[in-house]
Design goal:
- The protein has 450 residues and is of the alpha/beta class.
- The chain is built from 18 helices and 14 strands.
- A 6-stranded parallel beta sheet has the order 3-2-1-4-5-6, with helices on both faces.
- It is elongated and about 75 Å long.
Amino acid sequence: MKIGVVGTGYVGLVSGTCFAEFGVEVICIDKDKSKIDRLKNGEIPIYEPGLDDLVAKQVKAGRLSFTTDLGEAVRDADAVFIAVGTPPRVEDGQADLTYVFQAAEEIAQHLNGYTVIVDKSTVPVGTARRVAEAIRKANPDADFDVVSNPEFLREGAAIDDFLHPDRVVVGADNERAFEVMKQLYRPLYINETPMVMTSPESAEITKYASNAFLAAKITFINEIANLCEAAGANVQDVAKGMGLDGRIGKKFLHAGPGYGGSCFPKDTLALVQIGQNFGAPQTLVDKVVEINNNRQIEMADRIIKACGGNVAGKKIAVLGIAFKPNTDDIREAPSLVIVPALQKAGAKISAFDPAAMTNAKAVLSGVEWAEDAYATMKDADALVIVTEWNEFRSLHLDRVAELMKSKNIIDLRNIYKVNEMKEYGFQYSSIGRPSLAMGGEEYVGIRAAS
């Protein structure tokens, strides 16, 4: 089979490369000539573990190529995937579909024989119908169907998510289109990966509903963390007790500074707007958005409080800028709220991130960018862990203590044990945990002593 993928951003490049791994002949298209030239030269424009090697493998095999010529990719394709950006509109938070419809109209001009047009971008309910109308208007004689096939890729684990998904959701109106999609996903289909065959509207809502639910789960455990702090409980124990319930599950029950990234903030806002448009208000999701926005501001206040209520003139070492580990994505990252708030309060920021500093330098000013984690700590009054990169999980604490001016650590990801930090003499603040642990691995005999 042959497919074209319009858009070489995160979703388009990963999806196209993974389809090539399935044995499909893939042409990825982008209007940005410089990006296509870089891809042809083996340069990957995004940070995603393993993607560079997989792209090189598929290019060498002759199954993956790159072009700026849309017609070249569309004319002989069995399916064309639209994987362009749908950023939130500034005025109302709704998904901006400008690029989707531009792509649809241009694809229409080159259709030759029956072709399935696949919405891979995250789009509001009803978009598949509107894309079909746009194509039909641009080319009344075209033989095509429009399918909704939302992506569920986690940044940092996207290749595994595509090759070994929990499910594949396909929204179409007829068996002809379903059969094309089954052939494209044949390696998954024959391995009995769950395939949800439904209407385009149901598929579109499934994407938003899934992300909004996960965002709500994160927000819920953050609210519970606040209660744990007030009551002297341990949110990690609470989360474990909850997560062992099969109806709940343990994933996304990690208290922290709030969610960020390219999906959750955008998709929760969009779902709120979709609900309003259909007269079905998404009140719970609306509250999740509000709580999460406040959460990131509260984190800066928490850091200031841990520094005695005043950070003016103090040096704060910040570890992690990306919204999560294993990505260079800083979109809606908590750090983009926390760092400016600390600077506004008079703090001097020294920061390090293993992958995101190039992107961060474009939006964060007045930051001293360090060459590694330890370089941020020299003469620091406090150390803040914002992103839980693996290399931050096993810092040499004796070295940290020697470098810092004040042994004050604020861990917004709970990656260290409370009692271990106490043993090293650190003033240690974390999320939703008592100052001395009373159970599990961190128990050090306090209960017996009492």
